[in-house]
Amino acid sequence: MTHRQRLSMLVAMVIAALGLATTGAGTAAAAAPKTQAAAVAVPSAPVTGSFTDASGGAGTFAGTFTPTSFADQDGSLVATGTLTGTLTDSAGNAVGTVDQSITTPAAIAQATCRILDLTLGPLHLDLLGLVVDLNQVHLVINAVSAPGNLLGNLLCAIAGLLNPLPSAGALAALLNLLLALLRGA
Prior knowledge:
Elements: H1 3-17, H2 25-31, E1 45-52, E2 58-73, E3 76-88, E4 94-105, E5 112-120, E6 123-127, E7 130-134, E8 137-144, H3 150-159, H4 168-183
Antiparallel strand pairs: 1-2, 2-3, 3-4, 5-8, 6-7
Protein name: ABC transporter substrate-binding protein
Signal peptide: 1-30
Keywords: Signal
């Protein structure tokens, strides 16, 4: 796997980790004239939470986070963006709204990593009268990296030893470039 392919895969994982999914981006880009770059809305991630309201009940928060930039903060990747949403008390009444700029850590999540991809062609064995015919076999072993998956975490870490991750600054620059492309700048 080339460095460019690894970087592309990393960017895709970061965007997936942030929960950013574009819907309709392909149709918006297809409808724009080819001589002018089409601006596509930057995807936002849903945000939910809870709080204790004035009556002691459990209120809820529902909103979205839209990233505006990424940065390297002490070697860690952070996302700055706009958080918008509504606070609802335990009785179901809206008690306030939020529309403010925030900065939050951006985690790089790796759900799976390929450990082995082996394809064996057809095989014919004759072992002293025992005949074994085996058609094509495709064996794929993936490790799932997640909390509590000790073996999956270990194998993903070992498999990625020779594939260094870019620095937080380099990753922030790449993500800012993607945001600029989405905005049509």
